[in-house]
Amino acid sequence: MADLRRPRPAAKQLGRRRDLSAPAGALVRLLLDRFADLAPTVWTDEDTVEVRIDGERNVEVLARLRDDPELNFFMLADAAAVDYGPTEHFEVVYHLYSDLHPAWLRVRARVDRADPHLPTITGLWEGASFHEREMYDMMGIVFDGSRDLRRIYMSPDYRSFPQRKDFLLPDDAADSPAAGVDPLERPETWDLSRFVEAATSSEAES
Amino acid sequence: MALDTKGPPPDTSPIVIPDLAGDDDFREFGMAEHPRGGFHGLLEVIPTRADLVLDLIRANSLWPLLSGLSCCAIEMMSSATSKNDIDRFGMFPFRASPRQADVLIVAGTLTTKMAGPLVRLWEQMPEPKWCVAMGTCTTSGGRFKRSYSVVQGVDRLMPVDVYVPGCPPRPEGLIYGMLRLRELVLQRRGEWPTYVDRGPQRSNWEGDVT
Amino acid sequence: MTSEVRIPDPLHPERTEEARLRAAAGLAPAPSTGGEYAGFESVGLPDRPPQTEREREVYTLDEGEMLVNIGPQHPSTHGVMRLVAKVRGEVVVDIDPVLGYLHRGIEKLCENATYTTVMTYVDPMDYLSSMHNEHAPAIAFEKLYGVKAPRRAEYIRALVVELNRVFSHGLMMGFQALDMGGLTPILYAFINRDEVVDLLASISGQRMLFNFFRVGGVNFDANDEFFSRLGTWRAGVLKTIEMNERILTDNEIFRGRTIGMGVLSGSEAMALGVTGPSLRASGVPFDVRKAHPYSIYSELEFEVITHTGGDVYARYLQRVAEIKQSIHLIDQIVDKMPHGPVQAQVPGIIRPKPGRAYAAVESPRGLYSVYAISDGGPNPYRFRMRDPSFVSLQAMPKLMPGRLIADTMAVMASFDPVMGGVDK
User: Fold this and answer.
1) Which domain covers residue C28, as residue numbers?
2) Which of A44, A117, B133, C163 is the one with CA 20 to 30 A from C189?
3) Number of domains in chain C
4) Residue A95 and residue C358 in contact, taking contact as beta carbons nearer than 8 Å
5) What are A143-191's pLDDT values in tens digits?
6) Could you give the CA distance from residue C72 to residue C272 in angstroms, rounded to a whole number?
7) What CATH number should be reported for the domain whose range is A2-153?
8) Boundaries of every domain in chain A
C-alpha cells in the first residue's frame, strides 16, 4: 500500500500543455480572439478546453462566455473547488456547456489560500448557490455577495473544512501521520478568524 | 312525534367481583378498595404474568418503523413489496409513527448529523422495542469507516438485537434477520430487559480508530 | 387576523407563548437547551442568530406565519431530507431545504482510495443509479490513464446503464404516486425493479451496489445465460410499466393534483441548473447522450424526448417516455453487440500521468459528472462529483410558494431526488 498521505508537489506537475486537437480548435480560436489577455492560459485535450483566470475576474469572464452569441455557454455544468496543498493555492473550477461547441469549457479561477475570497456567480446562474455553499462548507472558500453562504452538509457548529488537504482521515497504521487523530474534527484546521472578520464587516455594511 | 331522550336509567348497582382468592390476597398486593365495591389496580398485577402471553403475540406481529436512511432502505422496501413480502411473517405494516412501532430497522449509513434525530426516534418508541442494524454501515461504519461524518456502528447509540450483514443485505437477508429477531423475542419471553437502562452497548471497539 | 393569536417566534424566545405563561406564573425562563440538535426541538432552527440574508428571510416570521419541519424522518421524503416550510395556514410561503443528513464524505474517501477502489465508493452515491455513478469515473479515469475500453465493454456498459435507467424511472413512477397517497404503483414498480436488479446481479455479482465497471472495461462478460434472462425480462417488462401507466396517466385524481403544479420554465430550469428529465420536461432538449456523446451513444438511433408542460405531470410523462426509449436502446445495443474482450490491459494499481479529466454522463436524474485530477500517484488528487439531484433541489424554494403543504411532496417527488447523491 502506497503512502496515501505524503504531501506531493501536485501543483507544480499539473498543467502541462498539450497540442491543440481538431474538434475544439474552433472554440480555441474564438477564445483567443475574445480573450486575448488569457491566451497563454488556454489549454485543450480531446474534449475539453481550459482557460485559467484570476479569482477576482470570474464574474466578468463567465458573463462574457455566457452572453457572447458565438460562445453561448448557457449551462453551468459544475462548479467545484480544488485544494493544492497547504503551501499552494485554491482553485475554483467551473465547467460550462454550449450547444455551439463540441467541447466542455473549463474555467479555473485561482484563489489565494490565505485569503480565500471570491465574488459569487449566483447573479449569473442562480443554481450556483448550492455549489458555493458546498465549497464554503468543504473548503472554506468565501463567496462575497452570496445571499446564502452557510454550511450545507455539516452541522452549523462544525468547525473544520474536511476537503482541505491538511484534513487527514484517520488511519489504522501506527506509523501514519494520521494515526490517532480524531475521526470527526480536526482542531488544527480551525482557523476561523478571517471568517469572523468577514461576517462582522458585512454586518457593519448592512 | 316525541322522542324518548331519557334513555335507560343509570346502573347504580355495585360492581361485583367474584371472590376468587379472598380479599386479603388482593390487599397484599397493595390494591385499594373501590368506593363502589371490588378492587381496582387489578390489571397492574397481571402483566408480569401476561408478558408470557403478550410476547407470543408480539413475536408474530413485529411492526417495523418506516425509517430508511440510505441504500439499505431500498432493499428494506423491496422486502416489504410483492416479490419478497415480509407480510407473510406479520411484519408488514411499516409504521410511520414511532409510537406504533416495535422494531427500528436502522437501514443505511448513520451520519453524525442524523444521529440525534435517530436516537430521538428510538426514544419515542414504546417498550418493548427491538433494534435491527441492517448493513455493514450500521454494524461498524462499513466502507465509510474512515469518514469524518459517519457514526462507526449504530450500537454506539442504542442497543442492537440483530445485526444483518451485507452491503446492502438482500431482502432475504433482512427477512432472515427479522425471523431471528422473532426467535429472540420468543426466547426472552416474559423477561425482556428494559432498554432504557441498557443504553448503548459499546463506546469503542478493539482496534478502533479513535 | 385577531391580535390574540400568538405566533411562536423562535428567533425571539422571550416572545413565545410558553415564555409569556412562565412569566405570568412567576416561573424562571425555560432553560436553554443548547447544542447541536437544540434547534431540532422546535422547528429545526439553529441555536444562533441567522447568519445570511436568505436565512434571515426564511426564519423571520410575519403575523400569521409559522414554521413546519418536514423531515429528516418523514415517510414521504426520499431519504433523510429536511424541508423547513414557512406556512400561512395551509399555504406554503417559503421553503428552506436543509441537507447533510446523509453526508458521508465520499469525495474525501475517494481521494484516499486507489483508482479501482473509487468504484466501490461511488456506488452508494445515487443508489438508484449505481451504474451511472460508476460510468462517469470510469470514463474520466480512462481519459487520465490514456486507455480505451474494448468495444464489447462499451456495449455492455451502455446495456447495463440503460437497464438501470429503466428501473430508476420505473421506481420514480411508484414514488410519485406513493408521495401523493397511492400505494399500488410502488408495488408494481418494485416487481420491475427486483427483476432488473436480479438481472444485473447475474452479470455483476452484486444486487444493488454493483461495482461492475473497471478502468478499461467491465468486471465480467455477459454470457449466454445473461442474454437469455434479458430476453425473458424484455418480453415482460412493459407489463408492469403499462400497468402503472394505466393506473396513473389518465387517473383523474393524479392529473388533478399534478397538472399545472410546480411549473418550471425552461430558462428558469437552466438558471437553476436543473438537468435531465426535469429539464427536458420544460422543453429544453438537453441530453448529455446527444449533447456530448460518450461511450457508444453516437452509434445508436434515438431522439431527445421533450415535453412542454414543465409541471409535475410533464415530468412524470417524460420519465414514462424515457423508459420506453431506454428499452428501445437496449434492443439496439443487444442487436449490435460485438464479440471480443471486455477488459483492456491495465495494472492493478493505476498511476496515471499528472493531468485532469472531466467526464459527464446522463444519469436518470440528469447530468452526473466527475472531475478528477491526477498527480501521478495511485489515488486521485482531487475527485469531484456533481450530482444532478443536489442541484435540482434548488428549484423547491422557487416552486412551492403559494402552494399547499400537501403538494410539497408531489413536487419534490417529480424531481426524483436521491439523498445519497444529494448529500454525497
Assistant:
1) 1-49
2) B133
3) 2
4) yes
5) 988 888 888 888 777 777 888 888 777 665 555 555 555 555 554 444 4
6) 24
7) 3.30.460.80
8) 2-153, 165-206
Q: Extract the C-alpha cell encoding C27.
A: 416561573
- Asked if A184's CB is within 8 angstroms of B148's CB, the reply is yes
**pTM, entire model:** 0.80
Location of C-alpha cell 497540442 = A19
- pLDDT for B45 equals 45
Mutant choice from B148, B150, B152, B204 vs A, greatest count of A C-beta within 10 A: B148
CA nearest to C215, candidates C82, C348, C49: C348
Q: Angle, to 10 degrees, between the axis of helix C115-122 and the axis of helix C130-145?
A: 160
Q: What is the pLDDT of residues B112-139, one digit of tens each?
A: 888 878 888 888 888 788 889 998 988 8
CB < 8 Å to C108, chain B? 147-148
Whole-angstrom Cα distance, residue C41 to residue C191? 39
Is the ipTM value over 0.85, yes or no?
A: no
Burial call C356-380: b when 16+ CB within 10 Å, e when fewer:
bbbbbbbbbbbbbbbbbbbbebbbb
Residues 6+ positions from A19 with CB-CB distance below 8 Å: none
CB contact under 8 A, C75 and B66: yes
Instruction: Give the closest of C48, C107, C354 to A163, CB-based.
Output: C107
**B chain contacts of residue A183, beta-carbon cutoff 8 Å:** 146-148, 152, 209-210
Provide the CATH number for the domain around residue C346. 1.10.645.10
On whether any CB of chain B is under 8 Å from the CB of C99, the answer is no
Alpha-carbon gap, residue C395 to C312, rounded angstroms: 12
Q: Do B209 and A167 touch (CB under 8 A)?
A: no
Cα separation, B84 vs B74, in Å, equals: 13
Q: For residue C98, is it within any domain?
A: no
